[in-house]
From TrEMBL:
This is 7-carboxy-7-deazaguanine synthase. Pathway: Purine metabolism; 7-cyano-7-deazaguanine biosynthesis. It comes from Marinobacter mobilis. Residues 17-218 form the Radical SAM core domain. Its cofactor is [4Fe-4S] cluster; Mg(2+); S-adenosyl-L-methionine.
């Protein structure tokens, strides 16, 4: 059984695949926060900008088989154009994504991307793996396509992650978790300046912005 909070067609807004059309499959549940506001401050990850509790979002639900979920996701891709792409996110997708589901996505003609906090081992067969470390949580994934660190995090300084092998190293300015996505966000503005300065001083790191929030899409 797979539990999905929501699924929607949009453009990837972050990282090296920014601007690419994708169906986002947001799995329910995370291992670093239970999703309740009253427990945010004491969670390992306390800046999450996402509601991943339950299965009640758009196109969300409980799926009995990998094939049923893959067919559901494939139907959200518009027609036959381009290279159909699913981004598995959450919540923490590696609590649920397994090899049978990856195989079912591939069978349905989907390339498979994953956004993970890196604390759980990744099943084989993922086409694009993005690891985004959180606070002092141990990262067990040693190799990925992109490492995308939300910045600044006092317990997760960039230097700690340069030994993780990645094709791209990104800093993503931390946004306020609870503001409406289209309003002004002074905290994000100040974090964007800090991330910019860090990238200028440490040119291994590149800046990525949450483009979807800038243009006002999901
Ligand atoms: C909601 S998480 C879900 C996937 C996975 N649990 C993870 O943390 O990577 C998706 C992406 O949003 C990023 N993110 C979450 N809260 C954020 C915030 N307040 N500002 C900027 N990025 C944020 C995460 O770092 C991750 O790259
Ligand atoms: N457009 C868009 N791009 C994204 N990239 C990563 C996201 C996520 O929440 O995992 C995300 C998201 O929520 N929306
Ligand atoms: S950002 Fe990722 S790791 Fe952190 S609480 Fe949200 S879903 Fe979990
Ligand atoms: Mg998001």
């Amino acid at each position: 059984m797979y539990r999905v909070k929501e699924a929607f067609y949009t453009l990837q807004g972050e990282g090296a695949q920014s601007g690419r059309a994708a169906v986002f499959c947001r799995f329910s549940k995370c291992n670093l926060w239970n999703g309740r506001e009253q427990d945010r401050a004491s969670a390992v990850c306390n800046f999450c900008d996402t509601d991943f509790v339950g299965t009640d979002g758009q196109n969300g639900g409980r799926f009995e088989s990998a094939e049923a979920l893959a067919a559901h996701i494939r139907r959200l891709w518009p027609g036959e154009q381009g290279r159909p792409y699913v981004v598995c996110t959450g919540g923490e997708p590696l609590l649920q994504l397994d090899e049978p589901l990856i195989a079912a996505f591939h069978q349905a003609g989907l390339e498979v991307g994953v956004e993970t906090n890196g604390t759980l081992p990744a099943p084989a067969g993922i086409d694009w793996l993005c690891v985004s470390p959180k606070a002092d949580a141990e990262v067990v994934i040693r190799r990925c396509n992109e490492l995308k660190l939300v910045y600044p995090q006092p317990l997760a300084l960039p230097d700690r992650f340069v030994d993780i092998e990645a094709d791209h190293y990104f800093l993503s300015p931390m946004a306020s978790p609870s503001l409406p996505e289209d309003g002004p966000d002074p905290v994000k503005q100040s974090n964007t300046r800090k991330a910019t300065d860090y990238c200028l001083q440490h040119p291994r790191w590149r800046l990525t912005l949450q483009m979807h929030k800038i243009v006002g899409i999901d």
